[in-house]
Specification:
Order of helices and strands of chain A: EHHHHEEEHHEEHE
Largest interface: A-B, 18 and 15 residues
Order of helices and strands of chain B: HHHHHHHHH
Structural class of chain A: alpha+beta
Number of helices of chain A: 7
Largest sheet of chain B: none
Oligomer: heterodimer
Shape of chain B: elongated
Helix content of chain B: over 70%
Shape of chain A: globular
Helix content of chain A: 40-55%
Chain lengths: 178, 304
């Protein structure tokens, strides 16, 4: 599998990102109604990555823990960067788009707010597939998840083993012939 | 074939006979009770009936049921000991696992401290070299620049680490795994760059060391991801309220009422009566004495 026409789209809001051409991992999963847990995740993202003021205690506390442990990563990185590219496999092509939380040198990092240990969550929610998409789109060589566990109130870090097979199958299923 | 019964078999046969005789007697006592109309006499006859039945059933209990239950009671005692041993073993295992986890985390912290130390050393060295280059570029003194550049030494504060579990041997092993900055490479590159700057007549250069810092940040992230997560043996804990005084009982009731909104979640009973019969009896007595009524309570009149 190869990707071509990789493009970085800086400084666009999430609504504008949604209008970009290409298939995203979330789009492939289908539409869903946001849960309260997802709403909290969005608030934390806005606070930690966009510098928005924390509107509630939980967001403030999570932001504090993340900054204390990963302050240097957050300070040195580019945040919320949107990528587009064309994924090619087996004479098929799929336009792709993804929005990465954190990019630092050749590494991408995604922030997650969870209620359970990260290990079990990766396969359950397909985070490895999502991160693989980001890696392909951004050209990063490694991807990590920083997860804040709401129950233990601690952070966990997990390096993602890319799942290229998933994207190859997606290209075969949803792609167009070259 | 012998038809002679053993003593035990004869005993069982005799028990069947005795049981029949006792039942006959109990039946007669019940019939004679039915003729009595006086409350006291009826109660006396009823007590005699119960006493007669108990004499027989106690023999069964003592000679048959209790000895039969001895086996399970001994097994239950052993089970309780096994449970206690199992809990003790799990507690020890959990503590060992937590100690192992703490050691792994300390090792990771030491490795991170070393990564930061070398990153700081590298950044400072590069910055110091470029300060020298800029100083001599301004003066146009190439020879002086190279002489001074060779004198620049890498410096940094000691690694920021205080550990209690990690041994010196472990520290040495970790230190051997951490990638050290290649100061010779930096020196050669900066010297080569400086040569070009002097040739090109550039007055000063700015060196951004963010990349070195970013590499250290990624390395730190990798170390955190690599730190083994030991799955700890489970020892469930829950609270139990001790109730041995009236004050404590009152406090339980007050607290119980404060939990009102959570009863659906907290309590599972076949009948509410079994949970709070004593509470209910106390409330009923208070109602009898004062006439006070309570919202949500139904007072049923019992005749005695």
């Amino acid at each position: 599998m190869i990707t071509i026409k990789n493009q970085i789209v800086h400084n666009i809001a999430f609504d504008e990102y949604l209008k970009l051409p290409g298939q995203s991992y979330s789009g492939l999963k289908g539409s869903f109604n946001p849960t309260p847990a997802m709403a909290l995740g969005t608030k934390v993202h806005n606070h930690v990555l966009d510098g928005e003021k924390a509107t509630d205690e939980a967001v403030y506390e999570i932001g504090k823990v993340l900054m204390a442990e990963f302050g240097s990563i957050l300070q040195l990185s580019k945040k919320e960067i949107s990528y587009t590219c064309d994924m090619h496999y087996d004479d098929m092509m799929l336009p792709y788009k993804g929005r990465v939380d954190i990019k630092i040198l050749d590494t991408i990092v995604d922030l997650k707010i969870l209620s359970q240990p990260i290990k079990g969550s990766i396969k359950m929610f397909g985070y490895d597939k999502q991160i693989t998409g980001y890696m392909l789109g951004s050209g990063a060589t490694q991807g990590f998840i920083i997860a804040y566990n709401k129950v233990s109130k601690k952070c966990e870090v997990e390096k993602i083993t890319p799942d290229y097979n998933f994207w190859e199958n997606i290209i075969r299923k949803h792609g167009k012939t070259n | 074939m012998s038809t002679q019964l053993t003593v035990v078999q004869q005993g069982w046969l005799a028990l069947a006979d005795t049981k029949q005789k006792v039942a006959d007697r109990l039946h007669k006592m019940e019939l004679s009770l039915q003729l009595k109309t006086d409350l006291k006499e009826y109660k006396k006859g009823l007590d005699e009936l119960v006493e007669f039945r108990i004499k027989f059933t106690n023999q069964i209990t003592n000679a048959l049921i209790k000895p039969m239950m001895d086996y399970e009671n001994r097994a239950k005692e052993h089970y309780v000991k096994m449970q206690a041993n199992d809990l003790e073993e799990r507690k020890i295992r959990k503590q060992q696992e937590q100690e192992a986890q703490a050691l792994e985390e300390e090792k990771a912290l030491y490795r991170i401290a070393l990564v930061k130390y070398y990153s700081q050393k590298e950044q400072r060295y590069v910055q110091a070299c470029y300060n020298v280059v800029n100083h001599f570029l301004a003066k146009g003194d190439k020879e002086g620049c190279f002489k001074e550049l060779a004198e620049v030494k890498p410096t940094a504060e000691k690694p920021d680490f205080t550990g209690t579990l990690i041994t010196d041997e472990m520290k040495r092993e970790i230190a051997s795994l951490v990638v050290k900055p290649d100061f010779n490479m930096h020196y050669a590159n900066i010297k080569a760059d400086a040569e070009k700057y002097f040739e090109m007549g550039i007055g000063s250069v700015e060196k951004d060391t963010t990349e070195i810092e970013a590499k250290a940040a990624i390395e730190t992230l990798s170390i955190k991801a690599e730190t083994p997560k030991i799955i700890s043996t489970k020892v469930k804990t829950f609270s139990k309220v001790e109730v041995s005084t009236q004050e404590e009982a009152k406090a339980v009731i007050v607290a119980f009422l404060q939990c009102y909104n959570y009863w659906d979640k907290l309590i599972k009973v076949r009948s509410w009566d079994s949970l709070c019969d004593k509470m209910a009896a106390a409330v009923a007595k208070h109602h009898d004495e004062t006439g006070e009524i309570f919202e949500g309570l139904t007072f049923k009149t019992v005749e005695k």
